[in-house]
Specification:
Chain A: It comes from Marinobacter nitratireducens. Chain A: One of its GO terms (molecular function) is oxidoreductase activity. Chain A: InterPro entries: Ald_Oxase/Xan_DH_a/b, AldOxase/xan_DH_MoCoBD1, AldOxase/xan_DH_MoCoBD2, AldOxase/xan_DH_Mopterin-bd_sf, N-heterocyclic_Hydroxylase, OxRdtase_Mopterin-bd_su_IorB, TAT_signal. Chain A: It holds the Pfam family MoCoBD_2. The structure holds two protein chains of two kinds. By secondary structure, chain A is an alpha+beta fold. Chain A is built from 19 helices and 28 strands. Chain A has four domains: 196 residues, Aldehyde oxidase/xanthine dehydrogenase, molybdopterin binding domain (Aldehyde Oxidoreductase, domain 4), CATH 3.30.365; 148 residues, 2-Layer Sandwich (Aldehyde Oxidoreductase, domain 4), CATH 3.30.365; 293 residues, Aldehyde Oxidoreductase, domain 4 (2-Layer Sandwich), CATH 3.30.365.10; 38 residues, no CATH class. Helices cover 30% and strands 23% of the residues of chain A. In chain A, α10 crosses α11 and α13 packs across α14. Chain A is globular. By secondary structure, chain B is an alpha+beta fold. Chain B has a five-stranded mixed beta sheet, sandwiched between helices. In chain B, β3 and β4 form a beta hairpin. In chain B, 57% of the residues are buried. The chains are: A alpha+beta, B alpha+beta. Chains A and B meet through α5, α7 and α18 of A and α1, α3, α4, α5 and α6 of B.
Chain lengths: 734, 160
């Protein structure tokens, strides 16, 4: 998820350090700021509200799905406002233009962008409120504001005597006007940023009181489940409604776009009724391919057309002519499901002139479009309440589950909670695309002289623009939704920036090789796809960093030194590579039956190198240790950075060891955690994370831990067995 | 026909079909939402509660099998106004990320310590292997459990 990719209908500038108070866009209902006497609250800006009773509310406009925004972004506010993070109460943002992700012009949480984009605006919001409170106190004391400062929720005067808590100042502060620079604190004065502040949501999440989407309960609520077609694209042609309607607790049974909805007074009754439901499907337009067909199609497409050149340097054909040796390899990666621990769910209450949604979603403004599409409402008539998310990983950027719940709620006119089963979650996902990579490198006098990478597969925006484009123009009438979606796809690279989902990471190939040609053959087999924690980087990382290992082996060089020698102009790449190698004691002997592999990949602006120590025990791959070095610029919370890199590594290892969604005649073969396995506690490697000290602006860490660990493991297995694996997931018996 | 249960020390009478999984009874009939639905097949451990002191997967335990039993959920683990030592350790170690699996993780850990107050690292890992965490919080789970070894009393009466 790179910045420019989702910014496909680009409007205006990105983040800015300027005052964001009372920001509003013409024609959009913005957040009302100012003082409200009736409640005694001062809404200083879109994010921050202080009350006369001493409460401080922070409206968090990025969702919390485990990546730590709840703690990290609150820390940014707390630092500048001069309060303890624990003194701030957090609520999840409603849909409003102020809360749009400035990189995407949509209210999205994704692409490892939260800290990077909040870094300036949230510190500015905190600092602005602090300044206004100081000005208010100075007016009370009739002194110059420069004599006053803020600390621990109070404004104090330099005389050491006068002191007022924020609660006493909020009304006065609301009348002050800030001019000029808000004065962000210099790094030397930070008390919170850069420290391992405790997670603010840990108590709620350790006591079972954190509310996830699936926990929402409303009076008179009914439960919906949906029988979806086993083959994507099939249509309902008939079902035994009468029989199912007669079952205990069943409220309604009816056809919706994607299948047959069963509504009952209790979840289990809905499930039992679904089990008795017999649906006939019209499969004339349904997906009928098998995974093998996908790769056959990719190979044919790749043979027909080498695709568009996405990056070209020097002349690869020249390099090919003068090469003493040409190395070629082909890599395959399967479809992958997201497997969030909390299955897809949404609660929708349609009430004639307006609807409310409670959902764990990464895109609440897209949720409004989803409801508008299936009811007679416009997006402005829809309120979205975001909950905690039991995992996201890109899955909840797509709002299909809200669409389904809305379609049901529109018909039954009661609060409806839709819950997917794990099997439905696995089999009706939108998948990380299966991809094919053709690699070719030229060697002359023992040196790498040319790099040719042909990426074969689909693009994600083709699937995403349908919902995203209308959300950027929420005032657009519904009959335009289709057009907006089509324009978004057709205008790619012209009116809208290019979709780099297939090529991200590959085009950032960092090694100094004179002749580079990176191409994309765009071909889409029709399997629904979407983002998946590090998406393009995840498959490109495997192809690039495995092939680099192959080339090192060909050259008879150490894989670490081989990479290092080609990174003379890339100091940040080289530094993480060196650190990871040092951390892992690269080159020192290992216990019998163990081997190391190394890989390096930059994604989402963050540099990560990983060394994996692995072996094969009793016919299974065992990963013993992962050493990671990360450069993500300035760090807001080193503990969260470490946790994200460790969690990313485990997520990547899960994919490397087990991840595979297979289609046979259009039907997904995997269904639950027995055949779509997750890494478990007993398989957990020790993960050691080294964070580079930096003055650079912060970049994301939610995803960059994933890409390098997959090739690093494959490279370790090669070092162990001498057999190169070019297909994922990896095989212990290869 | 009503089914009687003791849940977190309280007697409850429930009128739903006996084949309803205990998970949905706890969540939807009794409003105890801390116990989570993950897989519906006893594979992930998110729904772990204690039945008569033993950890069970409530997603695949029909209500009728729990009839007359004593159940402890995450809500009944600590004492009123006081976190259970494991919960305290979870907070200290910053274990939860998305947090969705953590009720089940804590209930598995609580049972381990009740039956084996001084587990080795290997015993902790073995006892926690049935609980999947997709965020990868496994190392902190082990650290948090190890930090309370010797603190949790083996004879602790659940739900009392």
């Amino acid at each position: 998820m790179t910045m420019n990719r989702r910014d496909f209908l680009k409007v205006g500038a990105g983040t800015s350090g300027s005052l964001l108070i009372s920001l509003s866009l013409p024609g959009c209902a913005g957040v009302q700021t100012g003082f409200k006497p009736e409640s005694g609250t001062w809404k200083a800006d879109a994010w921050l509200e202080l009350t006369k009773s001493g409460d401080i509310w922070f409206t968090l406009d990025r969702v919390e799905m485990g990546q730590g925004t709840y703690t990290g972004l609150t820390t940014l506010i707390a630092e500048e406002l001069e309060v303890a993070p624990e003194a701030i109460s957090v609520r999840f943002a409603p849909v409003a233009p102020e809360y749009r992700n400035p990189l995407f012009k949509l209210q999205l949480t994704g692409g490892s962008t939260s800290v990077a984009t909040a870094w300036e605006p949230l510190r500015t919001a905190g600092a602005s409120a602090r300044q206004l409170l100081i000005m208010a106190a100075a007016r009370v004391w009739n002194v110059d504001a420069s004599e006053c400062s803020a600390t621990d929720g109070r404004v104090v005067h330099a005389n050491g005597i006068d002191s007022l808590p924020y609660a006493k100042l909020v009304e006065l502060a609301s009348r002050e006007v800030l001019r000029g620079d808000v004065g962000l604190k210099p790094r030397s004065e930070w008390k919170l940023i850069g420290k391992a502040n405790k997670r603010l949501d840990a108590i709620a999440k350790s006591t079972g009181t954190a509310e996830y989407g699936i926990d929402v309960e409303l009076p008179g609520m009914v439960y919906a489940v949906i029988a979806r077609a086993p083959r994507y694209g099939a249509r309902v042609s008939g079902f035994n409604a009468d029989e199912v309607l007669a079952m205990a607790g069943v409220v309604d049974v009816f056809e919706i776009e994607r299948g047959v909805a069963v509504v009952a007074d209790k979840y289990w009754r809905a499930r039992k009724a679904q089990a008795a439901l017999k649906v006939d499907w019209d499969e004339s337009e349904a997906l009928s391919l098998s995974t093998a067909d996908v790769f056959t199609g990719y190979r044919e497409a790749a043979d027909d057309d080498t695709g568009e050149s996405e990056r070209s340097e020097g002349d690869f054909d020249d390099a090919l002519e003068s090469a003493s040796r040409v190395v070629e390899a082909e890599y395959e990666q399967p479809y992958l499901a997201h497997a969030t621990m909390e299955p897809m769910n949404a609660t929708v209450w349609y009430r004639g002139d307006h609807a409310e949604v409670w959902a764990p979603t990464q895109g609440p403004d897209l949720g409004r479009i989803a409801v508008a599409r299936h009811t007679d409402l416009s997006p402005d008539d829809v309120t979205v309440h975001t909950t905690f998310l039991g995992g996201g990983f890109g899955r909840r950027l797509v709002q299909d589950y809200i669409e389904e719940a809305a379609a049901v709620a529109y018909r039954v006119e009661k609060p409806v909670k839709l819950v997917w089963s794990r099997e439905e979650d696995t089999q009706h996902d939108l998948y990380r695309p299966a991809m094919l990579h053709r690699m070719k490198a030229t060697v002359e006098d023992g040196n790498l002289t040319g790099w040719h990478h042909q990426i074969v597969g689909p693009q994600i925006l083709d699937w995403y623009v349908r919902n995203a484009a209308p959300a950027q123009y929420p005032w657009a009438p519904k009959f335009m939704y289709g057009t907006l979606g089509k324009v978004g796809v057709m205008a790619e690279g012209l009116a809208t920036p290019k979709d780099v989902s297939a090529i991200e990471g590959a085009i950032g190939y960092p090694y100094q090789v004179g002749n580079i040609d990176i191409r994309h053959t765009h071909t889409d087999p029709g399997v629904p796809i979407t983002w998946w924690r590090s998406v393009g980087y995840s498959h490109n990382g495997f192809a690039v960093e495995t092939f680099m290992d192959e080339l090192a082996h060909e050259a008879g060089q150490d894989p670490y030194q081989f990479r290092r020698n080609l990174l003379a102009n890339e100091p940040r790449h080289r530094e993480v590579l060196d650190r990871a190698a040092r951390l892992a004691k690269w080159g020192e002997p290992l216990a019998e039956g163990r081997a190391r592999g190394i890989a390096l990949f930059r994604s989402f602006g963050t540099y990560v190198a990983q060394v994996v120590e692995a072996g094969i025990e009793g016919g299974s791959i065992r990963v013993y240790k992962v050493f990671a070095a990360v450069d993500c610029g300035q760090v807001v919370n080193p503990q969260i950075v470490r946790d994200q890199i460790e969690g990313g590594a485990l997520f990547g290892l899960t994919a490397a060891l087990y991840g595979k969604i297979d289609f046979v005649d259009g039907v997904v073969q995997q269904s639950n955690f027995h055949d779509y396995q997750m890494l478990r506690q007993y398989e957990r490697p020790e993960v050691v994370v080294d964070i580079i000290e930096s003055d650079e602006a912060p970049t994301g860490v939610g995803e960059p831990g994933v890409p390098p660990v997959i090739p690093a493991l494959g490279n370790a297995l090669f070092a162990l067995t001498g057999k190169r694996q070019r297909v994922l997931p990896l095989n212990a018996n290869a | 026909m009503a089914v009687n249960l003791t849940v977190n020390g309280e007697n409850r009478s429930i009128e739903v079909e006996g084949d309803t999984p205990l998970l949905w009874v706890l969540r939807d009939e009794l409003g105890l939402k801390g116990t989570k639905f993950g897989c519906g097949a006893g594979l992930c451990g998110a729904c772990t509660v204690h039945l008569n002191g033993a950890p069970i997967r409530s997603c695949s335990t029909p209500l009728e099998l729990a009839a007359g039993g004593e159940i402890t959920t995450i809500e009944g683990l600590g004492e009123p106004g006081k976190l259970h030592p494991l919960q305290q350790a979870w907070v200290e170690h910053g274990v939860p990320q998305c947090g969705y699996c953590q009720s089940g993780q804590i209930m598995s850990a609580a049972h381990l310590l009740k039956t084996n107050p001084s587990p080795t690292r290997d015993e902790i890992v073995a006892a926690m292997t049935g609980n999947i965490c997709r965020c990868g919080t496994y190392s902190r789970i082990v650290a948090a459990v190890e930090s309370v070894v010797g603190i949790v009393e083996p004879a602790r009466q659940e739900g009392a």
